Amino acid sequence: MTFLRPALLLLAAFAAIAATASARAADDDLLPVDQAFVVEAKALDRDTVRLEWKIAPHYYLYRERIKITTPDTGATLATHELPAGEKKHDEYLGDVEVYHHDFASTQKFAAAADAAQINLAVRFQGCHEVDPKICFPPHVTKLSVALPAAAEKSADNTLAPALANAGARGGLISLDGGNEPLPVEKAFVFETIASTPNELLARFTMPKGYYLYRDKTRFESSDATLEAPRWPQGVQHKDANFGATTVYFDQVNVPIGFKRNDANAQRLHVTAHFQGCLENSVCYPPTTRTVEVSLPAADATGAIATPAATAGSASTPATNATPSSGSESEDSRLARALSGSLWLTFGVFFLSGILLAFTPCVFPMIPILSGIIAGAGENISTRRAFTLSLVYVLASAVVFTLAGVVAGLAGKNLQAAFQTAWVLWCFAGLFVLLALSMFGFYELQLPSSWQAKLANVSNQHSGGSLAGVAVMGALSALIVGPCVTPPLAVAVLYIAEKHDALLGGFALFALALGMGAPLVAFGTGAGKLLPRAGAWMDAVKAVFGVTFLGLAIWMLSRILDPIWIMLAIGALAIGSAIYLGALERLPENTSGWNKLWKALGVVLLIGGAAELIGAAAGGGDVLQPLHGVGRSGAAAGAKAETLQFKRIKSSADVERELAAAKSAGKRAVLDFYADWCVACKEMEKYTFSKPEVQRALTDFVLLQADVTANDEVDQALMRRYGIVAPPDTLFFGSDGAEQRALRLTGEEDADKFLRRIATVTR
């Protein structure tokens, strides 16, 4: 049906004009078409024309109706590069893209070497969207654009003679950099020609401020054997990750020799693998681009028999960059590490894992492992403690890696899938059972026949206990710590885009081992330092029992109301206080240790009572249970309000809210949140709650996607924006476009977040 669109639009235009002729005659504000839509052009160089479009208020242009041709016989036009338009539902054309505001487009071309100008015929069509509502017939504006003299081009343009005769795609592209990082295909323009019968000349052209790594660039061809590239002298650049390295700015020409299969004319496919950065900003992930070179026939002496043709720019970047603001981001450094050697990848991700080991994502695993070691017996050796710790960490690392690989290849986050209510209740119940075993209840309640069988199995098969430790490690990786950090996100997105599960999984395994290394050290030391027998060992087991109950409460905090969590914490604290003798009288001449335990018990008793009072008063902050209790009126209103987000669910919701923000000329923030996400709650508690952050976001439209359910709608929304799992915070300008350089993965303190907000452009 697409062939009917021009006829339908033309019919609508004439019908609207005829129906509103009298209204237009009476309305002096309706502009002629050439005043409603003004287009001007100027040459950026001899290969590129920039068109400036000015659209009057209440008018819009159809994107698909903009066409450019040239009457010049010696010129050939390439693709007209238009920016994305606004989505609009047209009653005749259906869903289309339109432009309401001024914009610019780029037309690339090849002209004769002696051409002084290029003539363009710009055809377009638009409408007036308020009364009188009309659509103009298709209109053509003719432009004559003066071209700079050929001598004004760079003196090092050694390809100019060959490219001038190469036909439609012979001109090299010159790009103007902007404030926002360019797409990788525009930041690094790759072209190749056959400069001699047995030599290629590859060229990279970069806008100002972009540079290419020499050591990260290589060439290959499936059609010929390429020799080592002969790189010109580059610039020594001090890189924070790679040390002193050679880079190229602006433009670099690289001769590459090759062996022909025969002297006949043929086509050669050349693939470039490269990586580069925008100075003091982002680094792009490794990119692959393939071009086709036309090799002319060669005579007996090896000379080219016919003029060489240049390669077409049939290139597709292998990956997309996810930049971050400011200096080179952690995402960029990790993405670059994935392009290096296996040892570099292992080292970078292992060190990242060690740093993550001291975050709330890993903290809950410490008491679990400690409890396992404490429950292994009074006479556990250091070697046995090391073995148990290693098995726990390796099992969690394997499952962590598999979950990441599945998330990358299938788009399913297994960790998020395990954050359902029934799974969390079951795992919390498991912690309660472990706590009861620490308190000695199993010896009293389990039937003696069961105890005998378990003891017999344990004595005959020591591996049975190791299997249990491995199961606990696997469950811990899936359920206890479902945090998404920049290293995890980079590795999972690398797997999703490159489909390289081997390298991505290797990076995830290194990350998991780094996170587990401190656990192994802690577990081994705990096995050495734990008391061996007697009342001390019973006390230690009781401490771990209380810790397991605390973990059960912490697990349920993801799905229960804060009041219930405060009640549970209060009850646990009061029970622990009674166990420590907070309500008992100290005997005379008691030891200092007994006084210390009683003091701790009194503190827990007071803290537990505060939690119960706070819960009864309707509080919701475990760390400040009495905050606001006893206040009324203005005093109660003095409590700082939390940041008020508008909850959205689907992609349609996001589009609707962003369109409304754009119409109002406002910037927007889209935050991805889940109840089971620890980092999300920390972001809300320690960043979004700050008054200075709330003031900075006053002029923003605040949207929040609650993906707690992790259903198909949630997953579709996360796939749209390339989100692995929350927390992620996206920033949109007043034009409705995301400013990807500012995207935040994970949590961030208030000071850094304020600096990020300040860089969001309007």
Explain this structure to me?
- With 762 residues, the protein is of the alpha+beta class.
- The chain folds into 5 domains: 2-150, Thiol:disulfide interchange protein DsbD, N-terminal domain (Immunoglobulin-like, Sandwich); 160-321, Immunoglobulin-like; 331-534, no CATH class; 561-627; 646-758, Glutaredoxin (3-Layer(aba) Sandwich), CATH 3.40.30.
- 41% of the residues lie in helices and 21% in strands.
- The protein is built from 25 helices and 29 strands.
- It has a 5-stranded antiparallel beta sheet with strand order 6-7-3-10-11.
- The protein is globular.
- It starts with a helix and ends with a helix.
Question: Helices, strands, pairings?
Answer:
Layout: H1 5-19, H2 21-26, H3 33-36, E1 37-43, E2 48-55, E3 59-62, E4 67-69, E5 76-81, E6 86-90, E7 94-99, E8 103-110, E9 117-124, E10 126-128, E11 134-135, E12 139-146, H4 160-164, H5 184-187, E13 189-196, E14 199-205, E15 210-213, E16 218-221, E17 225-226, E18 235-239, E19 243-249, E20 251-259, E21 266-274, E22 276-278, E23 287-295, E24 309-312, H6 330-338, H7 342-356, H8 365-374, H9 382-410, H10 414-417, H11 421-438, H12 441-445, H13 448-460, H14 463-480, H15 486-498, H16 501-529, H17 535-556, H18 562-579, H19 592-616, H20 633-637, E25 646-648, H21 651-663, E26 667-673, H22 678-688, H23 691-696, E27 700-706, H24 712-720, E28 728-732, E29 744-745, H25 750-758
Parallel strand pairs: 25-27, 26-27
Antiparallel strand pairs: 1-2, 2-8, 3-7, 3-10, 4-9, 5-8, 6-7, 9-12, 10-11, 13-14, 14-20, 15-19, 15-22, 16-21, 17-20, 18-19, 21-23, 23-24, 26-28, 28-29
